[in-house]
Specification:
50% helix, alpha/beta, three-stranded antiparallel beta sheet, 4 domains, P-loop_NTPase, NB-ARC
């Protein structure tokens, strides 16, 4: 039974660990709070579980007979977290307005150890025992090799904070093709894996039906229950079973290439008809309380997930931009290309630090220009070969109205949304509401960047679209002549 405890409690009211499932209670309350309990909150909670009143707890912690501080912690914090936690488990509202109710409510909720178990956790036995190592189960699927990895220290730090400290339930990594979403997701999983009992990395490049994916996940997450576990016949039932696994154990699930599930030639983030069941699945993973985390990588932000995300909410998104100049310089060195500082800076800025695009261009420089960046730059050709293919792969997914706005943007420097000139120079046949909706979709596709209320195209997209316009104009001239 000692294996049910991750670590031994220390400090005031440690006797609470002899009778209560403290570790599970801490985790469930952290989910309700959307971040971990503070040491003081844990102390006060243990005091209540030991049967002490707020005044007695204040006397032990603060050496004062005034219980005002403890009561503030209870009324503004712990009581609310308990109410949210219990509602998520039972769908019944519980109102806690007095400290004496806490132990009875938590005992009814199943957080108290049985008498036979609690008797085993005597002080002497706990002090003499070494906390066991948690058995971990990892399935890396077809995760890419990250032994060569450039930069992203800031992004990794932010993502680890979201997952470990803030206990986010759903995190999206977004960005255009080639920016490094897949590699970052693997590196992130490697760096946070010690915080999870289960880790699963899956590519959705050839997407399975949701029922199939759920069956695979549940088979991996329930090995100890193989003889007793009965897989639900419905997707809703399997999703409930998965969430129960996510509540019982801390799990990390990474799903790469989510955009394979999404419908082309319409606004961003809408599922293809055959994969519409994924929509409710991701919503439930983001909205329902559990102690696990799901990481998604995609070129497009999910429309329905966007509605439930926020900077202080357990559902968040990170928009990946290109690597820094310093990190791109490491890629240039690794490819064996030598150039001046001016040349490599110009090269990096032209391709917005996109690592895959940069590697494609560097390969061309090696093969056609003997590794001389200056000779390549003199050609003044930004989009060609593999770069063109990467751009077209992304642009082929967009709707007709989005293409119309992209061509409109390609003819401009930047646009200021609140500017009166925008209204005067609207794309033909388009209302301002349609323009707003289309710009939002293009941002979710990572095709345009926004700074406050200014919108702009990446240089390679602008170059490609202008090339297309020039070719169309030339073709029209030839037809007329």
């Amino acid at each position: 039974m000692l294996s049910t405890f991750k670590q031994v409690e220390s400090g005031e009211f440690i006797e609470a660990s002899y009778n209560w499932k403290l570790e599970k209670l801490y985790v469930d309350l952290a989910s309700a709070k959307n971040k971990g309990l503070t040491p003081v909150e844990k102390k006060i909670l243990r005091g209540l579980l030991c049967g002490y009143s707020p005044r007695e707890i204040a006397d032990i912690i603060y050496k004062t007979s005034s219980s005002s501080s403890v009561r503030v912690y209870l009324s503004n914090g712990l009581y609310k977290y308990l109410e949210v936690m219990l509602y998520s488990q039972t769908s019944q509202k519980v109102k806690i307005n007095h400290w004496s109710r806490v132990t009875n409510i938590l005992e009814e909720a199943g957080y108290k150890l049985s008498s036979s178990v609690s008797q085993q956790f005597t002080p002497s036995l706990i002090e003499e025992s070494v906390p066991p190592v948690i058995r971990q189960n990892f399935d890396w699927g077809e995760a890419v090799d990250t032994s060569i990895f450039y930069g992203r220290e800031k992004e990794l730090a932010q993502l680890k904070n979201w997952i470990i400290q803030d206990r986010c339930r759903l995190v999206s990594l977004l960005g255009m093709g080639g920016v490094g979403k897949t590699t970052l997701s693997v590196k992130l999983a490697e760096q946070v894996q010690d915080n999870f009992k289960y880790l699963i990395w899956r590519s959705l490049h050839h997407p399975p039906q949701l029922a199939e994916l759920l069956a695979s996940l549940l088979k991996f997450l329930t090995p100890e229950q193989d003889n007793q576990f009965i897989l639900s016949d419905t997707i809703a039932g399997r999703t409930t079973q998965l969430i129960e696994c996510f509540r019982n154990s801390r799990c990390l699930l990474v799903l790469d290439n989510l955009d394979s599930l999404l419908q082309p030639c319409t606004y961003a983030g809408i599922f293809r008809p055959e994969y519409e069941e994924y929509q409710e699945f991701f919503q439930r993973l983001g909205e329902v309380l559990h102690q696990s985390c799901v990481v998604l990588t995609s070129r497009e932000k999910l429309k329905d997930v966007a509605a439930i995300e926020g900077v202080t909410l357990p559902v968040r998104a990170l928009q990946l931009k290109g690597l820094t100049e310093v990190d791109c310089q490491e890629i240039i060195k690794a490819k064996g290309v030598t150039c001046s500082e001016y040349e490599w800076r110009l090269l990096v800025n032209r391709y917005a630090g996109n690592p895959l695009v940069l590697k494609i261009v560097l390969t061309t420089i090696l093969e056609l220009f003997d590794g001389k960046v200056a000779s390549f730059l003199k050609q003044n050709i930004l989009v060609f070969g593999g770069v063109r293919e990467l751009i077209e792969e992304q642009l082929n997914r967009i709707s007709a109205v989005e293409k119309k706005v992209l061509y409109w943007l390609a003819l401009k420097q930047d646009i200021l949304l609140l500017s009166a000139a925008v209204v005067d120079e609207m794309p033909p046949g388009m209302t301002k509401m349609e323009l707003l909706e289309t710009l939002e979709s293009l941002i979710r596709r990572s095709l345009i960047h926004k700074h406050t209320t200014t919108f702009k195209l990446l240089p390679i997209f602008k170059e490609y679209l202008n090339q297309q316009l020039n070719e169309q104009n030339q073709l029209q001239k030839e037809v007329i002549s």
